[in-house]
Amino acid sequence: MHKTLLALILVSALPVSTAYSAENDMRPGLWEITTTSDLLKLASQIPPDQMQMLMNLAKQHGVDIPPIQNGAATSNVCVTQKMADQKIPPSFYQNKSGCTAQNPTHVGNKYTWDFVCANPRVNGTGTAQAVFANPESFTGRTEFEGVAQGAPVKEHADISGRWMSADCGTVKPPQ
Description:
Layout: H1 2-12, E1 29-36, H2 38-41, H3 48-60, E2 68-69, E3 72-79, H4 81-85, H5 91-97, E4 99-107, E5 110-118, E6 122-134, E7 137-148, E8 151-165
Antiparallel strand pairs: 1-3, 1-8, 2-3, 4-5, 5-6, 6-7, 7-8
């Protein structure tokens, strides 16, 4: 049971890269990224001590699970000017989740890409999209189908991002 829930949480928490940008459409600085999904709603059913155990297990696999409340995982990301100028996701997101982005497209303020996960923890394919309302906010969605920790997974997640500050404070940019 723990293994399956961890797998489901890992897949739901796969971050959407916030680095897609059209000629500086994305403002550099501190961003708050919120991911919601049906699977993340299951986290509230896990006793706190068991959830801590799952988070520790994920950390052993190189994945930091952000706090999950009310079916949403929220994290802060420091976006540098260089990241905001890129047309592809930074390698941090790909390396942390063990997935790679492919086939990025950009039409107006909408960005789409595919991703492939091929590692012992997560194996499968998915799609992602992000739509920027303005340089300080976006919404998006991911779809994933595959196997996570040996459990079949078919899941989607909704993502939103909002710019918080030009100063990232203690949050370091991904490397």
